[in-house]
Amino acid sequence: MARRKSQRRQKQAFQQLPWRQPRIPFPPLKMLSDDQVEHIVEASLRVLEEIGIDFLCPVARETLRQHGADVDASGERVKLDRALIMEAIAKAPSKFTLHARNPAHSLTIGDNWTCVGAVSSPPNCSDLKGGRRVGNWQDYTDFIRMSQALNVVHFVGGYPVEPVDLPPESRHLECVQAMLTLTDKPYGAYALGAERISDAIEMGAIARGRTREQLKSECSFMTVINTSSPLRVDLPMLQGLREAALGGQAVIITPFTLAGAMSPVTLAGALVQQNAEALATIAYQQIIAPGAPVVYGGFTSNVDMKSGAPAFGTPEYAKAVLAGGQLARHLDLPYRSSNVNASNAADSQATYESMMSIWAVLMGHANVIKHGAGWQEGGLCASFEKMVMDAEMLQGMWEFLTPLVVDDAEMALDAIADVGPGGHFFGTQHTIDRFETAFYAPLLSDWRNFESWEEAGAVTAEWRAHAIYKQLLAEFEPPATDPAVAEALDAYVARRKEEIHGRAA
Amino acid sequence: MARRKSQRRQKQAFQQLPWRQPRIPFPPLKMLSDDQVEHIVEASLRVLEEIGIDFLCPVARETLRQHGADVDASGERVKLDRALIMEAIAKAPSKFTLHARNPAHSLTIGDNWTCVGAVSSPPNCSDLKGGRRVGNWQDYTDFIRMSQALNVVHFVGGYPVEPVDLPPESRHLECVQAMLTLTDKPYGAYALGAERISDAIEMGAIARGRTREQLKSECSFMTVINTSSPLRVDLPMLQGLREAALGGQAVIITPFTLAGAMSPVTLAGALVQQNAEALATIAYQQIIAPGAPVVYGGFTSNVDMKSGAPAFGTPEYAKAVLAGGQLARHLDLPYRSSNVNASNAADSQATYESMMSIWAVLMGHANVIKHGAGWQEGGLCASFEKMVMDAEMLQGMWEFLTPLVVDDAEMALDAIADVGPGGHFFGTQHTIDRFETAFYAPLLSDWRNFESWEEAGAVTAEWRAHAIYKQLLAEFEPPATDPAVAEALDAYVARRKEEIHGRAA
Hints:
The structure is a homodimer. Chain A is of the alpha/beta class.
């Protein structure tokens, strides 16, 4: 019913708040007492000293051995003592700049700054009319366009959806090229081996008019290093981590500690394991590249007890988000969390679970919010409508994070006196002077009364989000790119594809 | 599509968390600095000293005059100085017990306790199949049944929907009777004159097996006193307030300060006016009944700049909620806020706006959450599906508010050692021992994977909520009522109806 009627909806100009990187004015919300933080840190250090962690990379193990780790000669196990770990991590910066192609879109990662990345890595995508489908190049680039168009999105954290119609060996070249030409925001790359990271560095240098050497001191993208929980880091991740760290690019170390599956069923246990995996991996990064930018990532959530499926945006997730922030700050490192939900549709569940995540993430002072816009279905599907819903929720939060002004003009004693008991403020000068900009203007919420809303087609938020995403794409104009840069990127991609496919054949 | 398929959904047992009254373990989130609180309080005292407030009740004005207020002899204006106000309010309790018919459902109002009331006062109601309609007796009692069945609902705050098929002069008798027999939770009554409050006291005394005199020291319901902002309190409200206060029943003093309409367009100005209206009305209540239970209510929100309609669950609303809590605590009084949204449907907008409200309300330490379950459309419509959505969101928050345990068993070092790097926790004893109760179990969220969800009919959260509400009503059993009590209530209602309609005719 809503779908049919949506065609009658009058088109309105798309409006959103201007781009800005928000700061969180509130003190971080604490889930753990200071003692509890100490207990978890102590237990995680004991895990690394007594149980150890598998690093599936001979280079990494050898490096760690040389720095004093106890490395199993016949296997992959590495035991790290606390002095080694803490000495290494002490070299990590507590804050760094993430440089964008457009300097106005560069970001501060740390302190009480926060920023939002688009959804990344789902194999599927969906919209209300087209339904759910495996991702392709058209969908991929449409999500990249949306990431540029929506001001709440600060960076592209990876592929919003996997474009499976491109060959996997060279897909990263076109994907990064699209990020670097369809947006002027910081981009993302996957640490699946050294090669993809190396290409991302080269291409970022071209796009930003820098040399590879210059990029070493100008972090231009972030890549996520997921551990293979429990207590294992795979070879491609360690190779990618090394390439990024040596190239001066930020790594977000994120253990994938799903309580009851890849970590203990208890939240405290999952946090101990999360911290152990993060400590070991960050220590390795700082040993090979002291002072390289790094972010402590938390992704602890729980499984659904009925189906065994991962659940997100749950009470346990919110608790883990707050606790994770405390563990990151204990190391004086920036913190990464995510805007997640487990709904199979862009419906009420999707938004209440997302709001659970968003509030927890902001109250827990996440400096980097991955999967901030468009995530659905526990990360298995990117949704165009959900991306618009997330934009609304997030820009509303930016407005909420803006401090209140309390001065004589705002307290309006004169206006209160003028209007007097029983009067009305609609027509007073104090109101007229401020009315147009006094309040948050939504991009998705419809605040008309029921009769007006019904008359206009009774369009629910889901279908309004659909119309907005279509409108955004129809109106999209890519940011300016120097033709010489575009050409150089084309040439780089062409040459590398030839190398890769020649080699693969 | 979802509607048709929903009929194929397999019926599952309804499950929810047990009834409990939660406490908020976090410190209150502050929107205002201590200085800003002082400025707002100072300005609101100046409003009452210099501008004054209209009390449209000769009895109230005379009482205030006798206590030293500056009362306009020829009009309704009352000016109150700060000493008079603060001396009176100092007599109010910072905490009180709200007694339920079932003592297990009694509530503590104050400290860091919170509690939730069902939606109250919409003229309309809706469900997905029946659509939007003017409320009637069947809908009214169905909402009352839902309020009893859902454990997140702690009290009935008023009529969840107005039963317009009952005569307005005597409607309150059947309405209160339904609250007192279909639920065993604290009830609500409207302060529209003294008579309705007097009847509510009498009926509560019957239901609880007490005398009217005993109820004076056993607060059994709360009634809301809305000011007619700006700076006016109407006659029926003042009469109802007096009857409740003298009868020992709690009043929730809630200015209706919609920024840009009934108050200044600036939030600071709206808060000044809110505080002024609350101070004057609470002072009056404490003058006539020192020590009587009272709650400081905040309802400040803003209008939609496009349509002029009230908006709720906005960033401004969240800010006002936090600031209102600070103003209430400044007076050492319990605080009331609300779970609100302005959506015209039980859709994504309804839940993201509600979650904005719920988080703000809990972070701001609201002791009483009015309209906690079922509110939609800025209060003009009660929704059966939204009531189920609210139950899910709120019980999830209750779980979130439960502190984390961090001890050896929960940190699970032994389990981490047993499973070891690269293992899996599904089958370990540590998991098996805890799996069934480890995590929050949702009542509405569906966490199955997409394929299972699609196979089961691809039912969105809205239609799942519909099925749950139907199931709750089908399974409803009223709480036990002593037949003698039921008979006494019947007799009271019959006698009073005869009095009222005889008199009206």
